[in-house]
Amino acid sequence: MSTETKKRTVKTINIDADKCNGCRACEVICSSFHAAPRYSSNNPARSRVRVVRDPLRDIYIPLYAGDYTESECMGRDKFIIDGKEYDECGFCRTSCPSRDLFREPDSGLPLKCDLCDGEPEPLCVKWCLVGALSVTEREVEEPAEETKRGELEIGLESLARRFGADKLLDTVAQITKGR
Amino acid sequence: MRYAETGYVLEVDLTKGNIERVATDPRDTELYLGGLGTNAKMLWDRVPADVEPFSPDNLLIFAAGLLCGTPATGCNRTIVSTISPQTRLMAFSMMGGFWAPELKYAGYDKVVLRGKSKDLVYLYINNDKVEIRDASHLKGKGAIETAEIIKKELNEPRAQVAAIGLAGENRVFYASIEQGRSSASRGGIGAVMGDKGVKAVVVRGTKDIVVAKPQEYMDLCSEVLDYIKHREDNPIPDVMPILAGLGSPQEMKVHDEKWHTENFNWGNARTRRKDFWTEEVDHAWAKTMEKARTRLISCYNCPMKCGATISMEGLPTYMMKCFTKLTYTMAAFSDLDFGLRIAQKATEYGLDGFSAPQVMAFAMELLEKGILKDSDFPGLPEDNEGKFFYLLDMIVNRQGIGDILANGTYWAAREIGNGAEEFAHNNIKKHEQLPLKLSMLNPIYYLMYCTGEKINITQIEGQFPQAPYPTVEQREAFVKDWVQVPDDKFKDIFLQWEPRGEKSMPNFPTVDMCCDIVDWQEMMHYIDDALGQCAGLSSFPLKPPYHIHNYPKFISAGAGIDMDKDKLMKAAKRYRTLVRANNIRRGMRRVDEQPPANHWKNRFPELEKNLLDSYYQLKGWNEDGIPTKETLEDLGLGYVAAEFERTGVYGGGSAEPASAPRQQETLNVGGVQP
């Protein structure tokens, strides 16, 4: 096994929800930046950051679009913090069939935050003058990727990711049994 | 292709239950911009002088400004226009919040309500799907409560709701339209909404707003953001804290209320308490505010935190901005705790925070003087605060004396008679004003009070410092980075202006200088109201990020209309004149253009006449305040001149000034007499 490591930059958006004023400037600039051509239009419904905002309950959570999932979780979660009850799955970043968050409003295609690739800093951070959003970077060391994998390995891995390892094993077992 | 705007308005006929999506003429955008500008045009075209405020033919227009929904910081205002039941003139109250951008994203620039619904309804706009829905279950509900119920029943937490409370339903003449942290309060437009049987207008939109020149527009937006940061880091020196920064006066943030409590008047705008602000009061009020305030909050796409969520023990949470913090407190000679408690109730009822407290103080004064009797107030509580809560309920329910008071001090005084008129002493054009009573005439403010058709001084003033700086060095430092002036002459005026001596008020700034200053101040507010820009980042504060030099660029790059400074100034003058034209044909004349008689102790009739004459002349209005035929034609408003000629407005034929008593509500006040 290889002992070599390589460095990778991890970017973290720090969300200080206590400082959020609920103005949604982050949504405005995000949807504008990701419009094609760039800045040609804006539409918060297309934004990859959304402020979950309920002033009467004092709830302000800027939430970033994470990965897409095909199926929702088996159960859901609901947080109560300091007496404040947050929405179901209120802190989840996933673009999920259980809700319309983080999907293109017309096509339904999933959205994912890319930290404004190519810009010196994510624009939501730049536009958040109240300081609720900031970004930090750090280097992490990770084991270097091992030797190049073959087609079969890659194929099996993607099947396992899609259907789950158990299901894959079962299927392989069934197929080979039939032979 | 339409840029920045959607090019569509939603026409809703409440009588028939008919809804139409109507394309607008892009030429109108070029001439009148949008928001207030195109509202004024619509009212001119469709609401003739004989239409009563509570007629089904009166329109209630909710407009998003031209640049609302684009990334321009702070551009979020809804301009609501109609004919006011109180002033019987054109009302155009504005609200910030989140409603206007949402309307744009739904695909509309305006919602135009006409007719009347038999039953209480609400309008639900969800992109292309628009419904008139039953609101019988919302009857009598609070404005904020209504918004919460509707969002829940639609399962649409992101919908924006503009709603009326009981005051609007009962057509109180100073009823507001409430929208979360914002409200359109002046002129009684909530009463018109109630009269039309509309409890709420609910919007949800998920479409794009497109700008004409993307990179250029974004660069302009970035410059504005950078400038806001610069101004936050560099407050204006030598002015009181509320004038040093940007945004609305930071009433929710600032605890020190010495200036307001000692300079504004208490009760029925009578009593000045020069030694009110003691350390003890400071301490107690700060404690009240700290405890009540959950968070400082903003409107859509704006970093200024002018509002706050307020939670008083035992009461539902509500949101507040600005000066309502003190109006109830000062009207009742009470404290901040009372003020914040009664404001909670008044916000749910949907009432203008300027007029309502003053009407109540007026009623108490009439009782004190014996003009109203104890028998007019059955069951009046003994304690002072209790009396105000009692009056609030009576007014909103139009019960007993409350039915008369619900029409505001001007109309109530006429109905009560017996000398009550003298107590309705703080009105302009029949509308209650801020409780300010000062000594030396301020000619700049004189002009603004007289000629302001926005009815509220805070929506006319701004840009130019309210007082001169004592030293030349201070003045030189101030003008050094004063890029917002339309012309360098304003710097010269400020440099010469002295606190006392020859070059001090009321003689300096000179009459002509005052006219120029007021013209600039007013113009910037009118531009804001067409674009949907909040005055707090533009026309109100000193040295704002938006001004006459970058606005044309915003319009060019945003809306794709070729615009320069002169063309913009002319457009603003065009629809400003059209607002006046709407009011002129409803009977407004020079005689209506005066501040409350006791606003200043030291008056100068000759100077005042000179000021008004000169200002009218600068504006292109005749000596009676009517835009001349030449002015109108030069602005492309020949159709207004034609109607003025046809109806005899120029011949003095309109005659009846708007301040004259009206025996019946149906009286035609347009200029139709020979």
**What's the helix count of chain B?**
25
In helices, the fraction of residues of chain B equals: 25-40%
Shape of chain B: globular
Helix content of chain A: 10-25%
Number of helices of chain A: 4
Strand content of chain A: 15-25%
- Quick check: average pLDDT of chain B? 95
Could you explain how this protein is built, in words?
By secondary structure, chain A is of the alpha+beta class. Chain A is 23% helix and 22% strand. In chain A, a hairpin with a 2-residue loop joins strand 5 and strand 6. In chain A, helix 3 crosses helix 4 (165-178). Chain A is globular. With 674 residues, chain B is of the alpha+beta class. Chain B is built from 25 helices and 20 strands. In chain B, the strands form 6 sheets. In chain B, strands 2-1-6-3-4-5 form a 6-stranded mixed beta sheet. In chain B, strands 8-7-12-9 form a 4-stranded mixed beta sheet, with helices on both faces. Chain B is globular, with a radius of gyration of 24 Å. The A-B interface holds A 21-25, 28-29, 32, 35, 37-46, 54-58, 60, 105, 126-130 and B 69-71, 73, 98, 105, 144, 148, 157, 180-181, 205-211, 214-215, 217-218, 225, 228-229, 232, 294-303, 305, 309, 316-319. Strand 2 (41-42) of chain A pairs antiparallel with strand 13 of chain B.
